């Protein structure tokens, strides 16, 4: 007889039915265990162990060799949804193929990152696509579609969006709170997540480390009120690593870990990433929370049901019918197709910032390739291991159109002397560049080795080792031995030439030189300790040990080598930029937009020797380079482009490919244009291309071509709820090229502050010379043209005139069309009937949004630390015949007050003392009469003094 399969094994049943049946067969202990990232196997039911979380931001990461595509911000620069979907598909295929031989490779993919790049100094700038929510949503939708696959039931991988919500800063990232006003939330933050979720290609989200409006993101009520209303799919919420413990730990938001994890589970977190592979602390905390009644069985079951549904979708229970099962034709990594795709992506990511006719390069030239990144193929924290590497120097040397290549890296060469002698790098096996993989593509292969001899000192300068010094800015240096290996500090504290590249969670290859007496202290940045010299060699000083004083002797200037190469060449390519593990990455924000001074000197030296000098910026983020823009005939930018970066750059420079990358974020001219690092209010701070009132160095969407394009008449219309726009774009130049057609919208006379213009749609097209294409856009009118009405807490489209604008960037508009909409007129605030929610202000100064209660609600208080009052303005309040009184709901840990004023009037309406209420959540109502009550339609100003947490104002009628 054939054994009867239980329902959860029946592929004919729905995912919901199968997950429900399987859940019912699990014990409470088995269910609790599944809530940790590393869920154990349940052998009696045939369930294997399961791990949530596989990094795959621009290729499969951390699991060995895999195709490395350009950084996410570089993928954003392609503005090409179709390309990004193919990259997602390739990444998903590689994850499946790698899992077939390595069970550590997961199919719950934590990618992409959709946090918006509103501030170019943020450390995690490299992980996002763009500063614009619609572009970000479109590219994230494409990437997740590729990761998910197109099978109606089974998923290739299960993508999880990062990081919910309003995150990307690294300073105090687990304790800092982001103020997110309703308009920024609904118009800017949520759309980036909503697009891919509604497309049905997302399995879940990961909350961010930070707090929003005073509440940890892992307790966000928006998981329930927004996220899970966008789709019928049972979205899985995976915590970020260590974040569950932060709730009662660094954030001190709940008094115990049991209460913190219980609150996260109730809010909607399903999978707890904490304590590495050790699930016991998490399971014990949740078990205790259940016993104490902090959570119910229903909370556990809801989370486990969502996790089981995801696992069933991944084919875990159907290996015979899963279309993505290994052996079904999915290729492994490093196939010809994936290599070609990596090259195509790197080519499309190159942005031509300026060109005064220097590019494309004529064939047969002698090219000097110089600069600190001229022979580098850098990886970042979320990269896989390179199966191939191509540097700018490689690419131009191999290009048939280049007659001769000269090279000068531009590092300064130095010797170090101390009281005991000259620093020497002993010869070792590391110098041969060997290793267990037989190659040199894994930058971390030798890092941390303690079997290599440490640096020593010798008696004479002749025996001293020459080191290559690079100053990355901010006093951060790297030192490289003559064999190409970086000085690194291993766990035993000794300095060795043992790293092929800087890297790691804590970078062990960075140092600082600090002036001290008649020399310098050499301080290791990773440990913060100065270097000392012992009989066994150089190592970081222990507690109480005296630091060594070093004298630095420069034996060769990098500027001299660069100038010499530049003078001997027909054209010079200076390659500058950042190392993605230094000065701007996860764990560290940047402090300035400026290019490091050493790199400034290099391009200046090259240009002084040869006027035909271009600057190629290879970086994870924008720079402010106004002097280079003014002086040089050509500038380009590309993010770190992965395994094919050098070949791609050479093909663009030599004209095989016309550049068509477009900037995914604004490049500002200097630091003064930037808002505060933790200011997420783009409306109030007038930031990003949407609101920035100044002149950027390069605007959002900017990018030049070797060809030229004509934009025909733009026509627009409205049919029901659908907005349509059409135009013809023609290649009027001599080169076949891509053009990125950008469609923007703007309100002609808005009643509230609206963006200068905002991206409505985009299309990357390829045109041969002399050919044109008719392009049409079909868009949901309300979504594209509307905004969040804070007075009535709704999405609205105002009546009036709107302009649709087509162009080559946000500040290069070529054609526009008018639309007049009926819309919904904005009604005044009905304050007598509904009062005023404090968080629903129109303008603010010196305030912060905070949590009304631990589980939901917002309040407003003066910004902490300044000691100054906070100010709120509510526009167009309808007071009718005038209220009799004002009723204020607030909490205060100390005495404070709230003053009501009519803007522009000398005297206040009333000042209400708010005595201490006994805690930040201990709300009370304070009421006062309004003898001089406002009447009719007017604006209201509220001034808060002291630690008052204002929730709302009500105005009882007469």
UniProtKB/TrEMBL annotation:
One of its GO terms (molecular function) is hydrolase activity. The keyword Repeat does not apply. It holds the Pfam family Glyco_hydro_3_C. Coiled coil: none annotated. Residues 739-810 form the Fibronectin type III-like domain. SMART domains: Fn3_like. Gene3D superfamilies: 2.60.120.380, Galactose-binding domain-like, Glycoside hydrolase family 3 C-terminal domain, Glycoside hydrolase, family 3, N-terminal domain, Immunoglobulins. Keywords: Hydrolase, Signal. Belongs to the glycosyl hydrolase 3 family. This is Glycoside hydrolase family 3 C-terminal domain-containing protein. The lineage of its organism: Bacteria, Bacillati, Actinomycetota, Actinomycetes, Kitasatosporales.
